[in-house]
Amino acid sequence: MSKTVIVGTNHAGIAAANTLLDTYPNQEVVMIDRNTNLSYLGCGTALWIGRQIDSYENLFYTNKEAFEAKGAKIYMETSVVRIDFNAKVIYCKKNNGEEFTENYDKLILATGSAPIAPNIPGKDLKNVEFLKLFQDGQSVDASMAQEDVQNVAVIGAGYIGVEIAEAAKRRGKNVLLFDAAENSLPNYYDKWFTDDMDRVLSDNGVELHYGETATAYKGTDKVEALVTNKGEYPVDLVLNAIGFRPNNELGKDHLKLFGNGAYLVDSHQQTSDPDVYAIGDCATIYSNALQATTYIALATNAVRSGIVAAHNVGGTPLESIGVQGSNGISIFGYHMVSTGLTVKEATKAGLKVKHTEFEDLQRPGFMKENNNVKIRIVYEEGSRRVVGAQMASYEDISMGIHMFSLAIGEKVTIDKLKLLDIFFLPHFNQPYNYITMAALSAE
What we know:
Layout: E1 2-7, H1 11-23, E2 27-32, H2 45-49, H3 64-69, E3 73-75, E4 78-84, E5 89-94, E6 99-103, E7 106-109, E8 113-115, E9 128-130, H4 134-144, E10 151-155, H5 159-170, E11 174-179, H6 191-203, E12 207-210, E13 214-218, E14 225-228, E15 232-234, E16 237-240, E17 244-246, E18 276-278, E19 285-287, E20 292-294, H7 299-314, E21 327-331, E22 334-340, H8 343-348, E23 353-361, E24 372-380, E25 386-393, H9 400-409, H10 434-440
Parallel strand pairs: 1-2, 1-7, 2-3, 7-18, 9-16, 10-11, 10-16, 11-12
Antiparallel strand pairs: 4-5, 5-6, 8-17, 13-14, 14-15, 19-20, 21-22, 22-25, 23-24, 24-25
Domain Pyridine nucleotide-disulphide oxidoreductase dimerisation: 334-429
EC number: 1.6.3.4
InterPro entries: FAD-bd_OxRdtase, FAD/NAD-bd_sf, FAD/NAD-binding_dom, FAD/NAD-linked_Rdtase_dimer_sf, NOXase, Pyr_nucl-diS_OxRdtase_dimer
């Protein structure tokens, strides 16, 4: 028997544990997590808080007992104090104070990420919240239920910030959305798209405050005002959604790190220590768009990295095929999806790119049910390979982005898409499909 210890039991750790337990009977699996629960789908927090779903129960897709039934030893509410990587010993402490150790043959670090907390005056006031764990969602939901909570400030207009702003608005609150950037979702979409999302937010009553940075929280016991570089605003609740950083506390002094502090791993998810693997938000990943190692914190990437690591630990050599960072968001019924790089992000990374775009109705004009669709395809200037795509509509156009994800992974050129075999039926699309038209419009 070979003993593998997995530290962290959310999406990445769960994927690794299931793969080992289901595929490799010679594996002794130990799982350790400091939380009270596992498998919480944080992407559903805003849906629950905004009452778009009835309850939070189904946001958990497995439990401790399921792993124990498969033969795993699992410790919940247990912190890893330190790891002796040379002796292969993990020092643990339960919430009740009990201390113990676990040795390992192979170690998988799935410690995830931690929210970035602004270190500003008033940060310890009540009703200054973060959104990461299930318990955070419970706390925010309870705050939303208070009658005296009317003005809600959301700091950070990335995915989580925009989603929780919608949720607060659906709960009848006055919502102010702040970001240091000049628009929402700047990491995933170019301005042609973010302008539309900002319009959707504003039209639905979210007050936008871009180009503003929080400098202090004011209040006696609870937060009563938010101070920025441009003004002061009365608020009853502050929701911080600035972003996340890799949680590297256990291995930062032993393992090689990426520029942002994530554990640097190879295509097998192996760290600089051959007996230690890192997966999920604490580790790097390979971008097929960039053709380089980078950091992309997404649950889908976490699951894939867990599967890859587990097979390698189990004795089956398996390499990651890289990722595109495919993602999507739906706010007040407006859907946006993207994969790979935006023009802005590609340029920042040093790639010389061009882009082509097209806008049209989803279906022929004679169809009663219809909506506008926007698409932008980003491609490298020299090689002409597709490196990114963005799409937006009140229609569900989400499946289209998967094709572009595959195109990036396979280094498909923009020219290859010009005569792509795309079917036509009025119920679904136009005879001159917007994907085809965008590709044909490329220089």
